[in-house]
Amino acid sequence: MAPDSDVTVGPLDLAARVDEALAVQALAFGLGADEVAVRRHIVLRHLTYPGARALGATTPDGRLAGFVYGMPNDRAHWWSTVVEPYLRNNGAEGWLDDSFVITELHVHPDFQGRGLGRALITTITDGAAEPRSILSAIDTESPARALYRALGYLDLACRVQFPSAFRPYAVMGAPLPLLRRGHEGPR
Q1: How many CB atoms lie within 10 A of CB 165?
Q2: How far apart are CA 143 and CA 158, in angstroms?
Q3: Has this prediction a pTM greater than 0.70?
Q4: What is the Cα–Cα distance from 83 to 162, expressed in whole angstroms?
């Protein structure tokens, strides 16, 4: 499916629009006000990291329909320290090096199923200098996991437990550039 033709994917000043982006994330991910407040501080801190970039999917009237942000992975970052033992146990620890991590990708429920998530993640990874990408997703079969698999992401570790999360996550990785429709199988 082609992305929604009325929605434009492009650079996003996430620091300036953090509250709007987190409102999208809260709807898409089912977050409460307390979780949003914590994530606000995390997002603003992440944006200070070298190489952090954000894209938004914006409607003609300026409404944020979705966003993605990520950065070159750093083993010293909290996320890496949590997932490293799981990856090491699966012989996949090397994925933490020279990878672009997708930190957050969310599309407003009113705009899901229109190709915006695909457009956001492929556009941001196309601009990455790293040869591969990693991310974490809730470890359940979902439209998000199906999208990631269609783009070439494979499970590197499952049942990853983050300290504050109730549900386990999967860590997934893909070589870059990500697969496009009609390009199946190994590259």
Answers
A1: 12
A2: 17
A3: yes
A4: 8
What the block records as the tokens of 22 is 């987190």
Of 65, 67, 87, 50, the C-alpha closest to 7 is: 65
Backbone angles phi, psi at 173, to 5 degrees: -140, 150
Distance CA 6, CA 154 (A): 31
Between CA 184 and CA 143, with CA 115 as vertex, the angle to 5 degrees is 70
Beta-bridge mates of residue 172: 135, 155
Paired residues of 23 in beta bridges: none
Cα–Cα distance, 161 to 173 (Å, whole number): 17
Q: Which helix (H) or strand (E) holds 117?
A: helix 116-126
3-state secondary structure of 178: coil
Query: Strand, helix or coil at 172?
Result: strand
* Of the candidates 26, 104, 24, the residue with the CA atom closest to the CA atom of residue 70: 104
Sequence-ordered list of residues with C-beta below 8 angstroms from that of 48, at least 6 positions apart, any chain: none
pLDDT 10s digits, 49-80: 999 999 999 999 999 999 999 999 999 999 99
